[in-house]
Amino acid sequence: MSRHLKKTLGQPNVRTVAGVLIARNQPVKPEFAHLARNESIQMGHIFTNPIPAEDRLGALFYSRHNYPGIPRRKMTANEVAAHKKNYEWKVQTTYTNIYNQLLCTYVGWNSTAAFVQLDARFRRENQEVLGTARQRDAYLRSIQRDPEATDEMKQATRMWLSMGLDLLNTPHHLFWLYEDLSYYHTKIHRVHDLPPLIYLCLRRNLVMPPRFKYTIFNVVEESAMDVILSAQSNKSVDELQKSYKKKLTNAIDTACESPNTCQCNKLWHMLYAPQPGSTESDAKYMTQNGEGRLDMTDFDVSDLRVVIECSDTCGCSSECPRRCSQRGQTKMLLVRYENEFIDFALRAAEPIRQGEFIVEYNGLVTQADTGTRRDESYDVALNLICPQLVINSSAIGNLSRFMAHGCQPNAALIETHSRVKDEDPLVPRVSVYAIKDIAAGEKVEISYYQEEQLKSKDGYPCKCRPGCTNTLPRYY
């Protein structure tokens, strides 16, 4: 990656720690000079999902829908003869048609140019695409078997499992926008070996899908980066030890591959451990076991909690159990439209065990009081690492922005002290971990509120699950 300042930030070809938004027409501040030299940091004036090269200039089809990073121009069936269908066409997605045949759509072509594929060579050369389709179809078939699924939902699964000509011949149908979002957001994931993702709406009349810029790293406003660089948490282990007066011991076990050199427990004591006589809320230290899972015994959603991950000072490899958020999401997730009350929700496409890392909450890191105007319902507060900051995913975010509220949550947000290299800025991170086993197809739910807030007499009825008697607070 070039070390010169870019005007825009986007999805990179190498792993990025963070993006930094700087003022337009202003020189890079001297205190940001080391960031500009850091190949894992992107700096620019705006963040964008670039339109991919598949956006065919001059193509006949032009989509009505303008979404970040989604091509609007595509070739059509009328242009096939001029371009000769062959094995060089890149496969986008596969379906099953009404004759139980394998049907394929192609990158840069709209649905009118879908073709049936019968030969073995196609299957050999497109294992990844076919694997994603199998996972999607397994979920859709579970909907067909679900006694609680409505007839409308079961009928909607036929769009994928028994596709007809009517849908293929309607390239402006919202179904194809959902499919493009699934494909191009998955493409961002695949750059970093993350699993695919799927957007679904199981209704007769599809609703408009969510419109936002997709990121797999946090994007930091310039003023927020000033806060980060001056924070105590940003200091190196050596710097912290020089000013720490107590003698540190290794009383806490560690699952690190290199337990004798691991620095994580020292960081806990120096930065986050409750101090004698302090009136602040006690923070809980969430530690991983040898599988990278957290101990959720006696977990309380109201507790402040932190996970500390290894850096290069620990002497361990990238496969260390204490580097879950650095490795990223490993479980396939999907986003499904639920109803008018919940809107969209995040669901597990495969089983997730208690204590497992699910996904990172990515978005715009901004100052809570003076940052960019935003929809604050997407704010996640940072109570321990940089209390002045929040991560907001309303305009820039990832799958985690769709987690629904649940009064009996199965997942939780946990602040995460994590950087690959000790010289990197300690950009605050928030990880999502399972606090219960989550079955395939189940919603991933967190609690938006403290327990006492759910008893408000001036609230409105919660509909997180049938029979819920809680009320959600009103904000004016």
Question: What does the model show?
Answer:
The structure is a single chain. Helices cover 20% and strands 21% of the residues. It has helices spanning 33-36, 80-83, 120-125, 127-145, 151-156, 158-161, 165-168, 174-191, 222-230, 237-243, 264-272, 324-327, and strands at 8-9, 18-21, 41-44, 46-47, 61-62, 73-74, 91-96, 102-106, 115-116, 197-200, 213-214, 218-221, 283-285, 304-308, 333-339, 343-348, 357-360, 364-367, 379-381, 389-392, 396-397, 404-405, 411-417, 429-434, 445-446, 460-461, 471-472. β7 (91-96) and β8 (102-106) form a beta hairpin. The longest helix has 19 residues, at 127-145. It is globular, with a radius of gyration of 24 Å. The protein starts with 7 loop residues before the first strand and ends with a strand. The model is unreliable at 1-5 (pLDDT under 50).
Feature tags:
single chain; 476 residues; alpha/beta; Beta-clip-like; 2 domains; five-stranded mixed beta sheet; 21% strand; disordered N terminus
Summarize the structure.
It holds the Pfam family SET. This protein is an alpha/beta fold.
Beta strands, count: 27
Strand content: 15-25%
- Number of helices, counting only DSSP H or I runs of 4 residues or more: 12
Instruction: Estimate the mean pLDDT confidence.
Output: 91
CATH homologous superfamily name of the largest domain?
A: SET domain
CATH classification, class level of the largest domain: Mainly Beta
CATH topology group of the largest domain: Beta-clip-like
Shape label: globular
Tell me the number of structural domains: 2
Low-pLDDT ranges: 1-5
Rg measurement, Å:
24 Å
Secondary structure class reads alpha/beta
Main sheet summary:
6 strands, mixed
- What strand order characterises the main sheet? 3-2-12-18-20-19
How far apart are the termini? Answer: 46 Å
Helix content: 10-25%
In the CATH hierarchy, what is the architecture of the largest domain at level 2? Answer: Beta Complex
